[in-house]
Amino acid sequence: MSHERHPLPVTRFAPSPNGSLHLGHAFSAIAAHDIARAGGGRFLLRIEDIDGARSRPELAGEFRADLAWLGLEWREVAPQSARLASYAAAAQRLRGEGLLYPCTCTRAEIAARAKQAGPEGPVYPGTCRNRGGADATAEGGVPVAWRLDVAAALARTGPLEWDDALAGPQAADPARLGDVVLVRKNEPASYHLAATLDDAADGVTLVTRGHDLFAATHVHRLLQALLDLPVPKWHHHPLLLDDATGTKLAKRRNSPSLADRRRAGECGAELAAALRGRRFPAGISLG
Ligand code: GLU
């Protein structure tokens, strides 16, 4: 008889402090919280605060107050700004293995040259891939980003799969995002590298987040294989959409923020109950 133990679910909510949280975030946090709770596991809060220019660290306090107002309980783990050494070490390792190359292209250049639209915007056309890495880093003063050579990485790992709780098994297809940036110009890491490393370090077993990040998971799965990280499962939940535009709720548009609602005296527990029951305010629906 097998006595294999199934780990208790560890989920997380990982907001970026670049704007107040809205109903979509509440829905996401509640989903992650409730899955962990139902399985006797743990729900983590991680502040993703390395988006230097737009990051407003003071919002972290507002986020905590919002989650408490909704009636959630969590354990907070280190913010990304406290983990820069782990990002640098991982980037160094991949660079040492010849899997990253420096890129000096600007957004405008990429937009002008890109031939393909990907899930996260224009797919990088590979301009800097064969330019000779050593020379590019020596271009005094010109900021460089470091991109993952996805073809070389896949040649090393072979085919990969990942599993989504709602969508089922997926064949990893990171090439559809192109050679993504792992180390941004003047920033220690991109979202892809930081979030993948953090989820492993935090022992996350079920990465619960919105469907808008579904495509990013193809890249995260590749990074896990390259960096020998444990492979979690994912749960990409549907997004709350603005009926008028058919687009996801955004931080600065649509409905009032959670903080606005909280300060106006609305009951957070009632709002949480409504979201759990899929009862949304007029003009908002689940995609
Ligand atoms: N920090 C991201 C955001 O606020 C979420 C990242 C994730 O859940 O993987 O959109």
Description:
- The protein has 287 residues and is an alpha/beta fold.
- It has 2 domains: 1-82 and 238-287, Rossmann fold (3-Layer(aba) Sandwich), CATH 3.40.50.620; 83-198, Glutamyl-tRNA Synthetase, domain 3 (Alpha-Beta Complex), CATH 3.90.800.
- It contains 10 helices and 15 strands.
- A 3-stranded parallel sheet has the order 1-2-3. Strands 4-7-10 form a 3-stranded antiparallel sheet. A 3-stranded antiparallel sheet has the order 14-13-15, covered by helices on one side.
- The termini are far apart.
- The model has no long low-confidence stretch (mean pLDDT 92).
- The structure holds glutamic acid.
- Glutamic acid is lined by residues 14-16, 48, 195, 209, 213.
Secondary structure: elements and pairs:
Elements lengths: L9 E4 L9 H16 L3 E4 L13 H11 L5 E2 L7 H13 L3 E4 L3 H7 L3 E2 L2 E2 L10 H5 L7 E4 L1 H8 L3 E4 L3 E4 L9 E3 L7 H11 L4 E5 L5 H11 L6 E5 L2 E3 L4 E2 L9 H6 L4 H9 L7 E3 L1
Parallel strand pairs: 1-2, 2-3, 11-12
Antiparallel strand pairs: 4-7, 5-6, 7-10, 8-9, 13-14, 13-15
Helix pairs in contact: 7-8
This protein binds glutamic acid (GLU).
Glutamic acid binds next to loops.
